[in-house]
Specification:
This protein has helices at about 20-30, 50-55, 70-80, 100-110, 140-145, 145-150, 165-170, 180-190, 220-235, 240-265, 270-280, 290-300, and strands at about 5-15, 35-40, 60-65, 85-90, 95, 115-125, 130-135, 160-165, 195-210. By secondary structure, the chain is an alpha/beta fold. α8 (about 180-190) packs parallel to α9 and α10 runs antiparallel to α11.
C-alpha cells in the first residue's frame, strides 16, 4: 500500500438513486488499497442515502446536504481530498475494472504527468454499449480549437480523466459560476498553468447516456463553452494558431448572428455584403477565420452570404 499513490475519487450526486449503486460498486470493487472515496450528495430524497449507507464502510467521507450545484459539490469534495491523484465520477457513470491500478502505474512511471485520460465507453441507461471514444488532445492549441477537436469527436470525456495534486495546487477549485462546462474550463486552466497531458489506450470509464442529462441542452453547452473560451483565446498564452482561433470565435459569436439578422431583416444582397464588410473591418481578426474564407469561397459566385 505504501508504494501506491493515494487516489481520491469524488462523486457528486443528487437524486440519482437509480444509478449511484453502479458508480459506488465500480469504485470500491477496484480493490485499490490506497483509495480515498468521497461522496457529496445534494440532499437527495430518493433511495440515494440508503445506498450510500449500504456501502458506508467503504466510503472515506460522505455528506448529504443542500449545495449550490455540481461545481460547488465538487469543490466540497476537493476541500477534503488528500490524494496524490484526483478524479471525479458522476453518480450515473462508472469505472472499468482495474482502472485505479493502471492509473497509479502510469503516474508512477511518468511522474511528470499532470492530466491523464484514456478510452471512455458510452452506454445507454441499461449499460448497453453505444460506442467507444478516445480523445485526441495533448496541448493548448488543440484544447482551444473546439471546432476541429472538441466538437469533432476528439474531446476529453470527463470520467476518463485523472489529474495530479501538483497541478491541482496550482489551479485550485472548479468555477462555481459555470453550469455546463466546468470540466472543460478546468482543463483549460490546467493546461494554461503548464499541465502535461498524457493518454493511454485503455478503457477507463463508462459514460451513461440518459435523456435527463443537462448536457442535452446543446445550445446552453455551446454558448457557455464559447464564453469560457474567449478568456483563454485573448489571454497571454502563446498559441501557434491563436489568430485563426480568435477569428473563428468572432465568426461564430459576432459575424454569423449578424448575417442571420441581415437576412431576416430583408436586406438586399448588396446591403448584406456592405454591412458584412464593415463588420469585418471592425473586427479585423475575422480575416484569419477559416470559416469566413470558406463562406466567401462558396458564396462569392452566387453573390450571396
Amino acid at each position: 500500500m505504501n508504494n501506491l499513490p493515494k487516489i481520491s475519487i469524488i462523486t457528486p450526486s443528487y437524486q440519482q438513486g437509480i444509478y449511484i449503486e453502479d458508480t459506488i460498486v465500480s469504485v470500491i470493487s477496484q480493490n485499490y488499497p490506497n483509495l480515498e472515496y468521497i461522496i457529496i450528495d445534494g440532499g437527495s430524497t430518493d433511495q440515494t442515502l440508503d445506498i450510500i449507507k449500504k456501502y458506508e464502510e467503504h466510503i472515506t467521507y460522505w455528506v448529504s446536504e443542500a449545495d449550490q450545484g455540481q461545481a460547488h459539490a465538487l469543490n466540497k469534495g476537493l476541500n477534503v481530498a488528500t490524494g496524490e491523484i484526483i478524479a471525479y465520477i458522476n453518480s450515473d457513470d462508472y469505472y472499468a475494472p482495474n482502472t485505479f491500478h493502471r492509473i497509479a502505474k502510469y503516474f508512477t512511471e511518468y511522474p511528470e504527468t499532470d492530466l491523464l485520460y484514456g478510452i471512455c465507453t458510452f452506454v445507454d441507461e441499461k449499460k448497453q454499449l453505444i460506442s467507444e471514444h478516445q480523445g485526441g488532445i495533448s496541448n493548448a492549441s488543440e484544447l482551444f480549437n473546439i471546432w476541429e477537436y472538441w466538437w469533432s469527436g476528439k474531446q476529453i470525456i470527463q470520467p476518463e480523466t485523472f489529474w495530479s495534486r501538483q497541478i491541482f495546487e496550482k489551479v485550485g477549485m472548479f468555477n462555481e459560476d459555470l453550469y455546463f462546462v466546468m470540466d472543460y474550463e478546468y482543463w483549460c486552466r490546467l493546461i494554461s498553468a503548464g499541465a502535461i497531458i498524457k493518454s493511454i489506450d485503455e478503457t477507463i470509464a463508462c459514460f451513461r447516456v440518459t435523456p435527463t442529462q443537462k448536457t442535452n441542452d446543446k445550445n446552453g453547452v455551446r454558448d457557455e463553452i464559447l464564453d469560457v473560451l474567449k478568456k483563454f483565446l485573448w489571454s497571454e498564452l502563446p498559441l501557434d494558431n491563436k489568430w485563426t482561433l480568435q477569428g473563428n470565435w468572432l465568426y461564430q459569436v459576432i459575424l454569423t448572428p449578424k448575417i442571420d439578422e441581415y437576412v431576416q431583416s430583408g436586406d438586399s444582397v448588396f446591403l448584406r455584403w456592405l454591412k458584412t464588410a464593415l463588420l469585418i473591418i471592425r473586427y479585423p481578426k475575422l480575416f484569419f477565420s477559416s470559416f469566413l474564407k470558406k463562406r466567401i469561397f462558396y458564396n462569392v459566385l452566387s453573390k450571396d452570404i
